[in-house]
Write a structure and sequence with these properties.
The protein has helices at about 5-10, 15, 35-50, 65-75, 80-110, 115-125, 135-140, 145-170, 175-180, 185-220, 230-240, 245-270. It is mainly α. It has a domain at about 85-275: MetI-like (MetI-like fold).
Amino acid sequence: MPETLAGRNPAGPAAAGRPVVFRGGGFAPRPVGPLGPLVFIVVIGLWELGSRIGWIAPLILPAPSEAFAALAYLVETGEIWRHLEASVSRLVIGWSAGMVLGVAVGFSIGLFSIARSGLVPVVAALFPIPKIALLPLFIVWFGIGEGSKIATILFGTFFPTVIATYGGVDNVDRNLIRMGQSFGLSWLSIVRKIVLPGALPAILSGTRISASIAIILLVAAEMIGAEYGVGAYVLLAGNLAATDQLIAGVAMLSVLGLVVSWLIGRAERYFLRWRS
């Protein structure tokens, strides 16, 4: 007598009606409550404790409370807004211009063979050059004012954006492009509906990298001939050996980086919501 399906099931008929557990949700990151802020609080608390009991010398690394007092003084006098306004305006202009030009050139390299043959060697030759080494040259070209600082940020963010963009275009599934061609979509429609969404994850990842580079170059550029800006404030604090003010300046840069990262994260959730 042939064995029935229930007979082959070791759990018997009761297991036959058991719902199947969905196992397709793995590798999906999810927020874990307030873990990030908690890590910051623990680190700062240990730092404050070490400073108060004498494990950390005040001259080498001041306590967080001293840095907070220096930051509060900046807020009270209004100097913090002058420094932040100067730095944020330079960062937004330089980074935005570098991103727009980088995406345009990256798409040209990814879509046109002539642009790829002519521009990829140029990008490969110029990208490894430390951009801060070109700051004296930019000062000669654009003067010691805002032009040289913005040019340094633009030049530094341009190349990683180009590489991320044409890398993202190259990684778009060619089967999707062939399918669009089979349905008679125009070249522009294929670029807009298939290539651009497929390249967006790489472009936004490149945006995070270029944002970090932009903040680094912003500080370096502001240390040369700038009256206001977070970099100028950090340089002045270092020259005066005012470590509490120096840590306050570093804290401002850290908050600036967190805000930029949060904005990019919001952009990723908006533009890449089709992946969920």
